[in-house]
Amino acid sequence: MDSFRKRFFPEVYRQSQKQGTKVSHYCEFNSELLTVFTSSLYIAGLVATLVAASITRRYGRRVSMLIGGTVFVVGSVFGGAGVNVPMLILNRILLGIGLGFTNQSIPLYLSEMAPPQYRGAINNGFELCISLGLLFANILNYFVNKITAGWGWRISLSMAALPAAFLTMGAIFLPETPSFIIQRDGDTDKAMILLQKLRGTTSVQKELDDLVSASNLSRTTRYPFRNIFMRKYRPQLVIALLIPFFNQVTGINVMNFYAPVMFRTLGLKEQASLLSSVVTRLCATFANIIAMIVVDRFGRRKLFLVGGVQMILSQFTVGAILAAKFKDYEDMNNEYAYLVLITMCVFVAGFAWSWGPLTFLVPAEVCPLEIRSAGQSIVVAVVFLMAFVIGQTFLEVLCSIKSATFFVFGGWICLMTLFVYLFLPETKKLPMEQMEQIWRRHWFWKKIVGEEVEKKEAESGKSALPGL
Question: Any coiled-coil ranges, and where (predicted)?
């Protein structure tokens, strides 16, 4: 918003208005202070999620959600009342801490509570709600920008308190997961009652036995962050590191952070840019709904691969349009600007039914209970780290290599799609406590896991994998 940039980032405002400057369109919003404001949230989230891992493991998923929601509320107060850049950065840091706790605990909570046959759809609901939040935020920005007095940005920043309050109050009434009840208290009767309520049947003994077995193993694991680096957890570690890394190098945060900036760079006016962001989020939201419907039917791999191809074509198309039609000191024709918008809608839709929701679902599925909180923390930490790097560097990179930026993103998507095709097994409908089977059957991972099994057999003198 012009009023926001004029007050807190006057240099950026002057550049975008061409007031006494001659700056390339690609460089109009390039400001170190602006990127610090944007990306400080993510470095705070990175630190917070590492702390959240031990709290989630020791005190439960619900406690982490309560902490995250409370910090969200406090952070939004500083945003709405901001009078200088340090207050705004404090707002972003507090929101980052809230994100660190909630992104670490909520996907874990959903995965542990969901029935195996619906786990994908329920976990995708997490991404759907994120997409709805972005959509509502963009709609809010569009309308409060019409406030002529120029204080609409205060509403934008303070409204984070509303969903945060719902989250905090709602978490008070949530039960803990059966996995954590058994892990913390060993109360199998309480866990069985909760499982029967969740599954709608009394036939839960097999699942309960699996949970007890996983919990007994978890109790012997004192240092999950150290243990996740053991050879037998090598597949899970690779998945927990690379899936969130690839998630971020798709370029999705270019859309999440800088969509209005991008569309203004292309020559659209302030209101048109904000409205364009609403349109892209609508596409993402519909795609999230589609993902919820099909993820447990078609599986994770197919969605990863289809979404990857869709994003590759989109990024290369945007790069080609900008290279051909967008000059440093001339506005792009509106028809080409709107063609970029349409292509970006295709891109965010591809992300929203593949890498968006599956980034949190798949690592939570494949990590056994004894390293699950550590695995989820690694996922969130990598997301935040890469989000910080991209948020801190994107405007500078855009200014330096211009349209080639989108070819770089497209190249990364090619690499990650190939990774999924070669190294990611299908995980749909398999109980989380039996997930280790997929590694023993995979053409690549069975070599690593098989060596570990042979070592166990040699030590114990009997088969570590009965029946196989």
Answer: none
